[in-house]
Amino acid sequence: MIPIRFAWPYGGLQVFLSGSFTRWTEHLPMTPLEGSSMIFQAICNLAPGYHQYKFLVDGVWRLDENQPYVTDEYGMVNNIILVKEPELAPSILRSEPLPSKSGMDVDNGTFQQPASLSGGMQREPVFQISESDIDVLRRHLSLLLSRYTAYELIPDSGKVFALDDKLPVKQAFHIMYEQGLAVVPIWDNSKGQISGMLTASDFILILKELHKDLSMLANEELEMHPIFFWKVGKRFKLHRKSDESIQPPFRKPLIQASPQESLKDVAQKILQNKISTVPIIHSSQDGLCQQLLHLACLPGILKYICRHFRHFPGTLPLLQIPVGRLPLGTWAPDIRTTNAYQLTTLQPNAPLSSALDFLIEAQVSSIPIVDANGCLLDLFSRSDITSLAKGSAYAHIQLDQTSMHQALQLVYEANSPLNAHRRCQTCLRTDLLHDTMERLSDPVVRRLIVIEAGSKRVEGIISLTDVFNFLFG
User: Fold this and answer.
1) Per-residue pLDDT tens for 412-465?
2) Distance (Å) of CA 189 to CA 93, 192, 194, 198, 242
3) Judgement on whether residues 99 and 230 belong to the same structural domain of the protein
4) E-assigned strands of 243-381?
């Protein structure tokens, strides 16, 4: 047996090692290297030959993309190491210098090594998947989600908020901030029904409208205008006197679902209408009485899908493909050249107005904040805008003069520090689609920032919508 040192240099809270040498049933704990919070190590005695292995980091299976890896007969992608018999003669007696190789290197002709590009970046080719494989996946999911209804998403107990449409806009956003809500239904008491949804995007549009004329902030315009005025007028001037007539623009109808609708139909409503949430509403036979049961969103549906595949892990080998090889997500040009959308990032000194413009115009939910080298520092999400409701911070800032760094400071001051570590959820290009889906099924994790192993350079973003568009086509 030969002692071999394994290392995981990318940080974490708990890291375990497992592999063919443990029959994949035992997870060996790895300990932090003295003086480092990022490097974990473990030493195992291995027999000569090839061994496959993987790391379990904070409950998620991870691959070290800077070490050789191979796809096994089940479609799983694992790191691999060749353990050789020890040399009998001391290396100092060799007449020729040995090539510099990692202790985990294997024959380059047999196994995959990351191909380096200029600047140290690595291009990940899109995996060539046959249309038949994708069709099999989509048919399987279509049949699965068609069998079950929205009732499956409704918890045994819980609460659902709705705001009266007569409530002042200012008070509405304070409630959204205090309750941690990014989307909330609007209740029309005169009709006894849900009339619409108030979102973080509404708050962004209102702030942009207010800051066109800073004098309006001093008049407490948000205190005077109810939600109804905003939702029917959208971009009407907030300083308009209440007795003036309003010519409301075209307003999209409320997208809702009944509890009898299939999970497939609910998912398609979210995707096709480019919204994040669909209210599940039970209506009486005459349609005069409505009961709000639940707010359905993609994480709940994805959790249902993942629960199914836990019982049938080998059903679809496509789920064992690394996300970096699949046609999903938004990527940097030097990582993926066939982007439908270009990856956009901002630096900490960029104005808050740039982020808000981008979130609205590009219809995305977040933007990575990076340093001068493109390494991930933080994330600004559309839902972060409700943090400005604390202490009416929006009335004391100017969008084009407040930097992203200052805006993020307001976010951290307004929210619990216990959740700060969950803001920037990251993954590697080598993470498997199934593992990525498991992580995105957490309602708090709306997207994963793809980073370069070791450097934290932002390579792409994979969102919930990206995954569902790939799964449903």
Assistant:
1) 888 765 555 567 889 998 888 888 999 999 888 889 999 988 888 999 999 999
2) 90, 5, 9, 16, 20
3) no
4) 277-283, 290-297, 330-331, 366-370, 376-381
Instruction: Name the E strands within 382-429.
Output: 426-427
Overall domain count for the chain: 3
Q: Which amino acid is at 150?
A: A
In this predicted structure, the answer to whether residue 351 has a pLDDT above a threshold of 90 is: yes
Cβ distance 51 to 81 under 8 Å?
yes
The domain in which residue 425 lies consists of 301-388+396-472
pLDDT the model gives residue 235? 42
Pairwise CA distance, residues 144 & 138, whole Å: 10
Q: Note whether 280 and 375 are same-domain residues.
A: no
Last residue of a domain, one of 113, 136, 163: 113
Q: What pTM did the predictor assign?
A: 0.69
Apex CA 445: angle with CA 264 and CA 346, to 5°? 115
Q: Are residues 261 and 310 in the same domain?
A: no
Is there a single domain that holds both residue 226 and residue 309? no
Q: What is the rounded CA–CA span in Å between residue 190 and residue 153?
A: 29
Task: For residue range 88-109, list pLDDT tens digits in order.
Answer: 433 333 333 333 333 333 333 3
For residues 11 and 27, the answer to whether their CB atoms sit within 8 Å is no
Output the CA torsion sign for 15, 18, 21, 22. positive
> Could you give the angle at which helices 464-472 and 131-146 cross, rounded to 10 degrees?
100
Task: Report if residue 370 sits inside a domain.
Answer: yes
Residue 329 pLDDT exceeds 70: yes
Residues 352 and 376 grouped into a single domain: yes
